[in-house]
Task: structure prediction
Amino acid sequence: VFAPPINRLITELSRFPGIGQRTAQRLAFHLLRVSDEEALALADAIREVKETVGECEVCFNLATESLCRICQDDRRDGHVLCVVEEPSDVIPIERTNEFNGRYHVLGGALSPIDGVDPEDLHLAELIERASADGVREVVVATNATTTGEATALYIADVLRERAPSVSVTRLASGLPVGSDLEYADEITLGRAVRARREL
Amino acid sequence: VFAPPINRLITELSRFPGIGQRTAQRLAFHLLRVSDEEALALADAIREVKETVGECEVCFNLATESLCRICQDDRRDGHVLCVVEEPSDVIPIERTNEFNGRYHVLGGALSPIDGVDPEDLHLAELIERASADGVREVVVATNATTTGEATALYIADVLRERAPSVSVTRLASGLPVGSDLEYADEITLGRAVRARREL
Result:
């Protein structure tokens, strides 16, 4: 039904995760409706981000220089490393204001089925950083999914061998704040019981 | 928290209707994650669509030439015009395969509160087309919203005066196919009762 340039735009928009054909069409028609200026501002922003944003040389977080903002900030505690799967995982942890250490971005989680093996992640660099002088703790903040958990166990194993003086910790599992017990799944609730704390 | 180019991209993405700050962030991180090639394909598609797609001179549908595909197609029946608010409204009607006439895109609906008056829409052009030789029917397919209904009534009024030989029709209101009576609102159900048909 559409002219080729519109089809092409819809196809490109539907590559976004969670954006189906229908939504992509709606977004495309939005871009057709707005001024050239507004639509091209998006095109330019995409181009600019791909030209200027790369990976931090140390932690693989997003960076516009060779080091990311956190690695450049000498008020951050270099004794504690927080390991996350993706750069986007840094933001929610920063928002908590509970962590003042540095990060290490793996670039994914181990998943043999999807062909993601240890050498596909920044694990060698993690081992090297963790074995360096002064690192006391590695907080593993991979997702609470099957692949995230498997990756956490792998990291704990490998660091126990390669950096035995470092303590490896994991984010706590438990009830989300504000949630009803009634709706908690049994695995989460089971973990919350085992990890109960004195009041 | 983000570098300026990432903030800019998030801002531009959040201009899409229905895309909040959170989703815009997710889309931005997707673009950061994919290859330069994939991200720039989207930027280029936006640019191309704004450069090549304009309005049909006759019906104001989207067009890559001076006339849209439908206005160029001489198998379409020029005796019947279907009036829609936006170019995106043409597609669902085309998909029904129930309409073989031509279109007229208004470019919105009348809404005095939002400052959309008759002269802001392609209404003068509609009157001119409807008064032309051979047009027998104008099907008003504006949305079933307050502004869409008001626009339909306005069109019926003005055409009664300016093109009295043309019959002006409106899409039927009624129960959506597959829907439960129980969940129908009373206005829809009331119209479905009034417009009941013999089986």
Q: What stands out?
A: The beta strands of chain A are 54-55, 62-63, 77-84, 101-105, 137-140, 167-170. The mean pLDDT of chain A is 93.
